[in-house]
Amino acid sequence: YYRISVKNIGKVSSALHELEEGEEVESLPPAGSFGPASLKPGSDVDAVVLVAAGVGITPMVSMAHAATMPTAVVHAVRNGKQWPFRGELQEISARAGVPVRLRAFLSGPTEQDLAAAEATAGEAEWKIAAKRVGVEDLLEIAKDLGASRPLFCFCGPLPFSAPLQAALEDAGIPAANIKSESFG
After folding, report:
1. What contacts 73, CB < 8 A, 6 or more positions away?
2. Which single residue of 27, 33, 39, 152 could bond 43 by disulfide (Cβ 3.0 to 4.6 Å)?
């Protein structure tokens, strides 16, 4: 099955948000390749860093379910109230056959979020940071996975992902190891 996540803003998003469970919609099938599935046999990639903003997390959940090498799921959200799939990602991390680490970056955290960030400070599998994600964070996350040749996959609005992708290239990550899908 396919999963869609809709933030209820805009004309089409609002119409999708109003659909009831079980209603059918007509759509085109997914096309192209994105994420770890795009790797060629014999690739030297040794870890995957999935980077999402907001509902861009949707395809990353499926990728985390299918992880075959050390993986980090990096999710940038405003606060804990706007954090979809949090519980499912925690379950994936707990049950995965390979390390699947979760990193959340909250740009507008609540007091409760700040307490949660403090509580996760020493944990390896699950960490919350009360700040915007930066390229130095992504490089550190890849290093924590033990990666020497990580694949970075982005899904989110261009104003979020484009600067991070450019900064990764400036830091020496080959363009072939940076994949993205965008919206908005």
Report:
1. 50, 52, 57, 60, 64, 89, 93, 100, 101, 102, 103
2. 39
